[in-house]
Specification:
This protein is of the alpha/beta class. About 45% of the residues lie in helices and about 20% in strands. The protein is built from eleven helices and eleven strands.
């Protein structure tokens, strides 16, 4: 028995030493961050993070832009060695809840860290006689099925936000999908629809000019992105939704490497000047541990999965 224990002890010690050594040696060549097409929020986050962690890791970090659903598919099939990473938004884990995807958000990735979040603002056309979320809910209950809400597409953040409001507030408002954010904006500005959820940066000029009226923000706490605006949750308990970005590695990436990446990403993101840079672009930093990210990912998928199921949004 003592011989077995000795052998097992040597094996465990050797395994731990190898993992530690792997983490210490990493990285010894350039790292690739795969993300979505140029110009969007994921690309913006990826490029800032790439520059920031390159110095901390002592290696070049290259951003590789891929279209649509290709980025997560590539990373899900990459070698789990820490040299291929993914910077992705909420659609990476929400998309598979709506339609078949080539990856599993839980099984195929090792979460490194959340990076940023961008809440939306609920806005109404000035012709709608409400000034608060409570008044909007009251109006929707008094006139079920007469209020329309716009989104840029079926399954978009605005669509999910509207369906979440319907579910939690027990109201009947009608979803009108458009082919992009531009047409959706035109629709609500023209009074074709009565309400929508959109990013602070997009709606701020219209709110300031009086062409739209802001009612609430979708974050759990008041946000610096919309000073003085109440949260949706203050009136509709449990309401929280937004667009997030995150860093992920392929599943089975050694814990030592994931932890090293997390340490450097979080260190970079928590610098005041970095937070300010993201804030000026309409997003807030939410750096996290791998464990916090993994737990939040599972919880968010379960929560929104119920909303998607109730709304019949799942494609056959």
């Amino acid at each position: 028995m003592s011989t077995v224990r000795t052998v097992m002890g040597v094996f465990v010690a050797g395994t731990l030493a190898a993992a530690a050594a792997q983490g210490q040696e990493y990285p010894n060549k350039p790292i690739r961050i795969v993300t979505s097409t140029p110009g969007g929020g994921n690309d913006y986050a990826a490029r800032i993070i790439a520059v920031g962690i390159a110095g901390l890791l002592g290696q070049q970090v290259i951003v590789d832009n891929r279209g649509g659903e290709l980025a997560p598919e590539i990373v899900s099939k990459a070698a789990p060695d820490g040299y291929t990473l993914l910077v992705a938004g909420s659609s990476m884990w929400i998309g598979p809840l709506i339609r078949k995807a080539a990856w599993d958000p839980i099984k195929d990735f090792a979460p490194v860290s959340f990076t940023t979040t961008a809440p939306n603002i609920l806005v109404v056309h000035p012709s709608v006689p409400v000034n608060t979320v409570a008044e909007l809910v009251e109006l929707a209950k008094a006139k079920p099925g007469t209020l329309n809400f716009a989104s840029s597409a079926t399954g978009s953040a605005a669509h999910l936000a509207g369906e979440l409001l319907k579910s939690l507030a027990k109201i009947n408002i009608v979803h009108i999908p458009y082919k992009g954010q531009g047409p959706a904006n035109i629709a609500i500005l023209g009074g074709e629809v009565q309400l929508t959820f959109s990013s602070p940066a997009v709606v701020a000029p219209f709110v300031k000019s009086g062409r739209l009226r802001a009612l609430a923000i979708t974050s759990t706490k008041p946000s610096a992105l919309a000073p003085g605006l109440p949260t949706m949750a203050a009136t509709v308990p449990g309401f929280q939704i937004g667009s997030a970005t995150s860093v992920l590695a392929p599943a089975r990436t050694p814990a030592a490497i994931v932890n090293r990446l997390n340490r450097e990403v979080v260190k970079f993101l928590n610098q005041p000047e970095v937070k300010e840079k993201f804030l000026s672009a309409g997003v807030e930093v939410i750096a996290s541990s791998p464990q916090e990210f993994a737990a939040a990912l599972k919880s968010e998928m379960a929560r929104l999965g119920k909303v998607i199921e109730e709304a019949g949004m799942r494609e056959k």
